[in-house]
């Protein structure tokens, strides 16, 4: 067990990294039309004549990459929320943070806000602000009950936040025109049906900032699981670590939701499976969850596209069907 | 770090402290923790023991007065620099995730590492030494959550020792009511462990406790706190008297010597006759 962390990290990253790459390369090959990976990457055929390449790069790869990005962000945001709130059942979805982000994104879309700043679109920025507001409420609750959030309070707060934001979302929906409504409904289920690289690019700056913060947070999160005061007397600047966690996890959730909607349960299924394999050290759990989250959501999306082919389900349906029972099992197993 | 004459290793000077939005808990407390000392802080519930310990640890800042380490005010010291000198053992520790004993002890090495630095062989050997000293080496692979209360406390002490290891001759260990969750055997064991550690390496200890016999047995000096004031302070023999105990707890007690061991023991006899609570 005392194998040096550096070696375990290399093993973890290469193992889960291979899984993610395999998922990203395989997923675009699966669908109603068969294509060949070799033909898609054959540079001898001009792109205009290469149907395989067109399907691979234009129709399917953006969606696959969206799955990887959203899965990776939500899984690692889940890890950070769990560490920050000292509760393994905390996730962006169950806390209502995803719903807050969704409300932000919906406002931006419905009222066609169209500013962009440093490549970040209005939808992504509004989504970030929505999740920041939601996390702010949860965090204030946790501070008010200074022993940290018990599972009961956490779940109740999450249910309430979800109901509250859902009501606001329904309210905003009345301002949307009828044609938008169907798309919005699918998106609210968690849907990766995008057909350009634009949403990915505009979420990218948020992704980079949040992942850099997560890398810094790995060790502080380990200490925080001892409790605030014990972490502080071990030399951690607790307030700074908590603020960083709070903002960066909101950024990650905002970026993910602006691309794929509030896809549920990734933030709980992935970190738990990862901890079973690599243990609780956040320096391993965070990178492993980011990579496995990508592979997991891409895999779920393949299922979503194929189980009822040619009908494509929103991927959120699949993750909820897997994650719901998983979450209940964790809840029962706890005591 | 050199220790000059003229001031104590750790000092509270006229400290007024408390919590935001509430009346202060400590009303001008001064205490001295000398190098290599073993100081007990006694007092009834609400007397400010834990608050004093937290102020000494730099967790809360005094509203007035100073905490001094090596004669210098604590405030400008970074959390990290302070943590290399001083470790705190909390009453109880609950972990949010299933860390192993070794992982918990290694968390004590946090203040010695740079931002993205990974623990090296030296950190592991320090952790192993601390676990050996606390008799927890054979537990290192176990999950912390599965240990008994006494084992957990020993592991946390190991983490604290690993944390201040390398502080040369002036590491400080603060313990907040360490025996509360422990049965008799573990209480004795913890006391023996602390004494043994002090015999082997230079170490300064301050402990808050309700356990008069634990304090009588271990501490060389005592500070008695009542209602946020120092009632008495000095060597254990001088301070631990029937009069002080009556004043501190409203309890009649006999302080006597246990013939076979020569230890001072306190026998609470009864509650003092009702007095006007003035």
**Major sheet summary line of chain B:** 6 strands, mixed
Distance between the termini of chain A: 28 Å
Global morphology of chain A: globular
* Chain-averaged pLDDT of chain B: 89
Number of helices of chain B: 9
What order do the strands of the largest sheet of chain B run in, or round the barrel if closed?
6-7-8-3-9-10
Number of helices of chain A: 13
Our Rg estimate of chain A from Cα atoms comes to 20 Å
- As residue ranges, the low-confidence spans of chain A are none
What about the largest sheet of chain A?
2 strands, antiparallel
Radius of gyration of chain B: 19 Å
Which strand order does the major sheet of chain A show?
A: 1-2
| Quantity of strands of chain A, as a count | 2
Helix content of chain B: 25-40%
Describe the protein's architecture and organization.
The complex is a heterodimer of chains A (335) and B (278). Chain A has 335 residues and is an all-alpha fold. Chain A is built from 13 helices and two strands. Chain A is 73% helix and 1% strand. In chain A, a hairpin with a 2-residue loop joins β1 and β2 (120-121). The longest helix of chain A has 34 residues, at 51-84. Chain A is globular and about 65 Å long. Chain B is 31% helix and 27% strand. Chain B has helices at 49-56, 79-85, 101-106, 121-133, 149-164, 184-200, 212-218, 236-239, 242-249, and strands at residues 10-17, 26-33, 38-42, 64-69, 72-73, 86-89, 171-176, 203-209, 221-226, 229-235, 251-258, 263-271. In chain B, the strands form three sheets. Chain B has a six-stranded mixed β-sheet with strand order 6-7-8-3-9-10, with helices on both faces. In chain B, strands 2-1-4-5 form a four-stranded antiparallel β-sheet. In chain B, strands 11-12 form a two-stranded antiparallel ribbon. The longest helix of chain B has 17 residues, at 184-200. The model of chain B is unreliable at 1-6 (pLDDT under 50). Chains A and B meet through α8 and α9 of A and α2, β6 and α3 of B.
